[in-house]
# Entry
Amino acid sequence: MKIGFIGLGRMGRNMVARLVKKHTIVAHNRSPEPIKEVAKKGAIAAFSLEDFFKKLGDKERIVWLMLPAGEVTEEHVIKIMPFLKKGDIVVDGGNAKYTDSVRRYKMLDGKGIRFLDVGTSGGVIAAKIGYCLMIGGDKDVYQKLEPVFKSLAIEEGYLYCGPAGSGHYVKMVHNAIEYGMMQAMGEGFELLVNSPYAKEVDLHKISHLWNHGSIVRGFLMECAENAFSKDARLDKLADYVEDTGEGRWSIQEALERGVPFSVITQSLYVRYRSRQKETFNGKVLAALRNEFGGHAVKEKK
# Structure
C-alpha cells in the first residue's frame, strides 16, 4: 500500500523504517534532516505538504500522523485539510486524548474523510520486533488498512477496539497501568538501596535474576536490568521524571466515572515530586522511560 507519513520523531522514524519493507512510504516532517534519514532507508522524501500530496497521487490517500498530542497534532490536521478529499483516510498514531479523536472523527466524517485513532506502544525496540496497536474508528476502514497494521505490529499485536476514540482510550489506560508498574519497581529498588544490605546489593544482578522465572519478570524489568548494567546506582541521572499526559487523562476519567484509581494517581504525584525533591525511586522511573522509549533524561550536574 502507499502511505503518507507525517511526523518523523523517535517513534515515527522507526515506524517508517519498518513499513518501507512492505509498503511505499511518502515521508514528511517539519525539519528536513529526519526526511533525509528515512529516504536513505527507502522512503520517498517530501519537503513540503504540496510535494507530499503530489507524491501520494490522486487516488484514495492514506495519511498517517505521528505527532505529539495536543496543539501540534491539531495544527497539522488543520494544515492538511485543504489537500484532503472525499474517501481519503487520516490515521492519528500519536498519544492523543480520546475526546480529541472523537471530535476529529466527526469533523472529518462531515467532509467524507475517514479517520482512525491508533494507540501505538512498543518503544524503540519495536522497530525490530513490531508494535502493539490499539485501533478505533469505523470497522470497514480498519479492515482496509489491516495489511498496514499487520506489517507494523508484532504477531497478534494489533486489535480493533471499537468506534472512534476507543483506540486512544485503550492506549490511555495502557499507559496509566505502565505508570503504576514503574512506580512499584521504583519503590522496590529504592527500598533495596536503603536496606541493611545496601552496600552488598547489586541492582543489576538482582534485576537480571528477576528476569529469569520470577513473577515480576518482563519488558520493564529488562529495561531496569539494562539501565543498571550501564550505571549500577544511577549516579549519573538526575531525579526528574516527565509525564506525557495519559496518566492525567486516565485519572480524570476515573474521577468522572467513580472508579478507584489509587495506585496510578499516586504514581503521577510521584512524578511531580521528582521535579522538586531527589529520590532513588525517581531515578529508576527516569531510567526506565529512557530504556523503553528513548525519552530524554537529565544528568546530574
In short: The mean pLDDT is 94. Residues 92 and 201 are 45 Å apart (CA to CA). The chain has two domains: 2-164, 171-293.
